[in-house]
Specification:
The protein is an alpha+beta fold and 285 residues long. Helices cover 33% and strands 29% of the residues. It is built from ten helices and eleven strands. The relative contact order is 0.08.
Length: 285
């Protein structure tokens, strides 16, 4: 089992010893940094989140840390030196919920996804005495979200997802784009009532109430307006889901337009047959 090393003697005040004892067993990773950019100490969780056994393996200084670990945002953009959370901590910046992917230097693929926040401990004169980087390993969460997104995008069934806090669409799959003809970017900039997925729904009022409450919306027939001015008959249903920490609603659709066209063609065919039958000069057996 990895054992976290003690703080440097220069920082071994009673307060910091007590702090070390408190944070040693936390599930969150904690790295203490001196204002002069020396890495003072890290708890066991922080070491494990970097795949190392000792604080020395993190690097003696902030510069060493940057040399040993390559960070990038979730959009694959590499962080500049000044954007590293540990650099921002040293600068005294207060931040929370910064999400970065972490790779060991020399490796192309990241091993972990960290969510990081900062804390500045001050002395009696309100001067920075110790800087704290607090880390959560959210790798499993983002791996699950990546699997969901891949499944969502690959699913041929039309679907959209809206946030419940503002009812804006946050995801749309290719099935919905193909069914409606809407532009993907146009959908993602609008709300559930701008592109009304419950339009002309047989249980529209119930659907609106359930949406406001974040509850399951039972399936119903609805008639969606299309960009070309036409409409499309669908079955729509809504299922509440969470994406990260955001409550959302997943809307799924079944295209009933082929059935409606077939029924219309059948009705027209029957009408033509009845006209032909009624106009026939000789009775038809």
């Amino acid at each position: 089992m990895t054992v976290a090393p003690p703080l440097k003697s220069l920082r071994d005040s009673a307060d910091l010893r007590h702090l070390r004892q408190i944070i040693a067993g936390l599930d969150e990773g904690v790295i203490l940094v001196d204002p002069d950019q020396d890495i003072l100490w890290a708890n066991t969780a922080a070491l494990g989140m970097h795949g190392v056994d000792s604080v020395e393996d993190l690097g003696a200084t902030v510069d060493d840390y940057r040399q040993r670990f390559q960070l990038r945002y979730r959009n694959n953009h590499k962080l500049n030196d000044a954007d590293y959370p540990i650099e921002r901590v040293v600068s005294g910046e207060a931040f929370s919920e910064v999400v970065v992917e972490v790779a060991v230097a020399g490796e192309d693929e990241p091993r972990w996804v960290h969510q990081v926040r900062s804390l500045v401990l001050t002395n009696d004169d309100d001067e920075p005495e110790c800087l704290v980087m607090i880390i959560q390993d959210v790798s499993a969460q983002f791996e699950a979200e990546d699997r969901f997104e891949q499944s969502f995008n690959a699913n041929p069934a039309p679907a959209v997802i809206c946030r419940l806090c503002d009812l804006r669409f946050v995801k749309v799959n290719q099935g919905f784009i193909d069914m409606t003809g809407h532009d993907r970017d146009a959908v993602l900039s609008r709300t559930v009532y701008d592109i009304d997925v419950l339009e002309r729904g047989e249980k529209r009022d119930l659907g609106k109430q359930r949406l406001a409450e974040g509850r399951t919306i039972p399936q119903m027939e609805a008639e969606l307006s299309l960009p070309d001015g036409e409409t499309k008959l669908v079955i729509v249903a809504g299922q509440p889901i969470d994406m990260g920490d955001q409550p959302c609603m997943l809307f799924t659709f079944a295209d009933l337009e082929p059935r409606r066209k077939a029924e219309t063609q059948l009705r027209h065919s029957e009408e033509r047959f009845m006209r032909t039958f009624s106009l026939a000069p000789v009775a038809l057996a």
